[in-house]
């Protein structure tokens, strides 16, 4: 009878203590919303800067690294800045190539990214043609002038 | 193969301007000693334009792409004129296309100017006896030298915050991607010089 009571007591103890042990390892999630900055780095050919290294500088200490990381295979990187208004500088680089851009964060205004507008192929072709015209024209002008001065001499 | 703004420390960029200024001074001094420097100006102007536009020609080398450099061709065709031609071309590329940068103009001038002079030297030594071999070595050697100088400068100016192992691995992939370009530029120099030797040998004043 005593043995039966002891077994019953052991089962009761385990039954009570097991949920308590599980409760001591429970996870807790605290949720808050935050404004994140999402960057996408590509080469001028359109290829992503896969696994590019990222360096972030906060506006209040532009010479000290605030944070760093690595972009994903598509050249994307996200970070949540501190509540410091101003221009956050972000550099994404790989093998000596890269770009530094600034993200303006301040007040109630949404974040704005400073970026240069992409050139079209027509614009590029026009610039090449203009430079070619200028370079060749200058060269031929010098040669023609030299030919004239030789003739006059 | 252009260092953009912000990639290297300011001190290194200033040193690059000093080095490029010295290189340009030596080149202009040698140009001044030529019998008729102005005779080469139209050719220099034409090749400056070719160099300027070459950066738009991307050669796909999976998973990346590389663009033409043509430092070897300029070195062989222009000799000492290659240095001012490359500096002018780099300035226009930085201002108009955003390739490279204004603060790194000096360093980029060294990255491409020194290999151009190396090619000039190779062509002067072997261009008469072994023109095709010398042209191939000049074209390939210029790309090889440019990649080596570029990688050396990047590693020398690497910020402490960056992972040097990751950057070295990326630079190795960058160098491997330039092997096809190296061969392509060697073939370009051989082809151009072959055509000029037959059609207009007077243009090869250094051959």
Automatic annotation (TrEMBL), chain A:
Protein's recorded name: Nickel transport protein
Signal peptide: 1-21
Keyword Signal: yes
Alphabetized UniProt keyword annotations: Signal
Automatic annotation (TrEMBL), chain B:
Record-level GO BP terms: transition metal ion transport
Alphabetical list of Pfam families matching this protein: CbiM
Keyword field: Cell membrane, Membrane, Transmembrane, Transmembrane helix, Transport
Compartments (UniProt record): Cell membrane
Recorded GO CC terms: plasma membrane
Gene3D superfamilies, per the entry: 1.10.1760.20
Membrane topology according to the record: Multi-pass membrane protein
Protein name, entry field: Cobalt/nickel transport system permease protein
Protein species of origin: Roseinatronobacter thiooxidans
């Amino acid at each position: 009878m005593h043995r039966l009571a002891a077994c019953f007591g052991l089962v009761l103890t385990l039954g009570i203590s097991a949920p308590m042990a599980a409760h001591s390892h429970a996870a807790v999630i605290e949720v808050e919303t935050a404004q994140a900055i999402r960057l996408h780095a590509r080469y001028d050919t359109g290829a992503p800067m896969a696994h590019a290294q990222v360096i972030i500088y906060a506006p209040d200490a532009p010479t000290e690294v605030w944070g760093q990381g690595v972009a994903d295979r598509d050249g994307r990187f996200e970070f949540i800045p501190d509540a410091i208004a101003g221009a956050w500088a972000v550099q994404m680089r790989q093998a000596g190539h890269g770009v530094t851009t600034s993200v303006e964060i301040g007040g109630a205004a949404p974040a704005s990214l400073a970026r240069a507008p992409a050139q079209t192929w027509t614009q590029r072709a026009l610039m090449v043609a203009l430079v070619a015209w200028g370079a060749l024209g200058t060269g031929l002008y010098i040669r023609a002038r030299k030919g004239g001065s030789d003739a006059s001499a | 193969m252009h260092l953009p703004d912000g990639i290297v420390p300011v001190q290194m960029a200033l040193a690059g301007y000093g080095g490029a200024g010295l290189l340009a001074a030596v080149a202009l001094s040698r140009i001044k000693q030529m019998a008729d420097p102005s005779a080469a100006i139209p050719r220099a102007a034409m090749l400056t334009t070719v160099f300027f536009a070459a950066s738009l020609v991307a050669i796909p080398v999976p998973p990346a792409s590389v663009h033409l450099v043509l430092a070897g061709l300029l070195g062989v065709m222009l000799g000492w004129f290659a240095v001012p031609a490359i500096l002018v071309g780099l300035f226009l590329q930085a201002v108009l296309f955003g390739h490279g940068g204004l603060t790194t103009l000096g360093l980029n001038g060294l990255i491409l100017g020194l290999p151009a002079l190396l090619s000039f030297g190779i062509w002067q030594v072997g261009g008469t006896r072994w023109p095709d071999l010398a042209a191939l070595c000049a074209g390939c050697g210029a790309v090889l030298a440019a990649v080596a100088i570029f990688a050396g400068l990047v590693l020398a100016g690497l910020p402490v915050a960056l992972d040097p192992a990751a950057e070295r691995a990326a630079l190795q992939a960058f160098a491997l991607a330039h092997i096809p370009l190296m061969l392509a530029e060697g073939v370009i120099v051989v082809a151009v010089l072959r055509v000029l030797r037959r059609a207009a040998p007077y243009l090869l004043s250094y051959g």
